[in-house]
Amino acid sequence: MFLIHIENLKKEFKKTIKEPGLKGSIKSLFNPKVEVVTAVNDISFHVPKGEILGFIGPNGAGKSTVIKMLTGILTPTSGRCEINGQVPYENRKKYVKEIGVVFGQRTQLWWDLALRETYAVLKEIYQVPDKEYKERMAFLNEVLDLDSFITSPVRTLSLGQRMRADIAASMLHNPKVLFLDEPTIGLDVVVKDNIRKAIQKINAEEGTTVILTTHDLSDIELLCNRIVMIDKGNLVYDGQINELKHKYGQMRELCFELKDSSHMSKLNYAEKFSLYGDDLSIENDGVLAKIRFNSQKVSVQDMLKYTLGNVNVSDINVKDADIEEIIRRLYKEGV
User: Fold this and answer.
1) String of b and e for 5-21 (b: at least 16 CB within 10 Å)?
2) Taking every annotated instance into account, which residue ranges of this chain make up the domain ABC transporter (predicted)?
3) Which parts of the chain fold into alpha helices (H)?
4) For residue 208, which phi and psi values (nearest 5 degrees)?
5) 174-176-182 Cα angle (round to 5)
6) Distance CA 272, CA 304 (A)
7) Residue 315 CB partners (closer than 8 Å, separation 6+)
8) Which residues 6+ apart lie within 8 Å of 107 measured at CB?
9) Does domain 250-333 have CATH number 3.30.70.250?
């Protein structure tokens, strides 16, 4: 059962082009030159109930525009999106009770109010019954550990505390869909881990569908099985992360420690295996070396045999390509 349906979604903006100088200003006032910019170009995908979907793309790809259409802030130029049977931009007051939204760079909390009072205000806005409110707060406190700072004014909270508080605020009315935009931005490793565990628990126990937009690909790899990737307004990938790794994860990383740093000159991978451009990169810092190579052009076995046959090493290992490297190559190739 699909909870979110997106069909041929397109969004265009009109931009006025102004020529330089006073003459250009007068000309643009009386006879403006208008350019149509396509931010989102005919994308379609569907999300089943209870899935955590990674929605990613470089800056300017159109991610925020898609999220704004899905939350009802923007109306598409053409196409259609439907979430839990509702069209976001047609009946937004009713629709917003079905969703929760967290923007990592912005907060929906009242800056000078104690956190508990903020939740009390949101309870009235969303018309949450008293009994349900108590149950929700008990669950959210268990998942997000709010008790230690729930009486503090929002302005006194640390970034990690505020992010947990924002997620709780977005979940107070038990939404069907939770939109998370950069939920771990600026957080340290421990707090990031706590936020990820909270998202997983909310998804598992509540069956909440999560749309996760982030530049931290560790979030994607740890939380999502499927990703939708857009670039320049176009859909470039929709599928499982494991399939993406299988299809584009041909890069391997050979790391080793030399017994003598001068021996690195004995290794010429480019000439030996005819590896050039993106198929080979070498990082060498004294005795430590890191070689990224395309395993479709040369096997791991041959790389190891050549390396160990020419230099003495004290340690060596081979790593698979991580999701960041795979996605970088996918963007570059434009597939």
Assistant:
1) bbeebbbeeeeeeeeee
2) 4-257
3) 21-30, 63-70, 92-95, 115-125, 130-144, 159-171, 189-206, 217-223, 241-248, 269-273, 300-310, 323-333
4) -70, 130
5) 90
6) 13
7) 256, 257
8) 154, 162, 166
9) yes
Parts of the chain belonging to CATH 3.40.50.300: 2-8+41-245
Closest Cα partner for 47 from 15, 83, 17? Answer: 83
At the top level of CATH, which class does the domain 2-8+41-245 belong to? alpha beta
In this prediction the pTM is 0.76
Q: Which residue do the tokens 């740093």 mark?
A: 261
How far apart CA 137 and CA 130 sit, in angstroms, is: 11
Are 296 and 250 a contacting pair, CB within 8 Å?
yes
pLDDT digits (tens, 9 = 90+) for 158-204: 888 898 899 999 989 989 999 998 888 777 888 888 888 888 988 99
Among 127, 193, 135, smallest CA distance to 164 is for 193
- CATH 3.30.70.250 spans which residues of the chain? 250-333
Reported as a single tens digit per residue, the pLDDT across 288-301 is 999 989 888 899 99
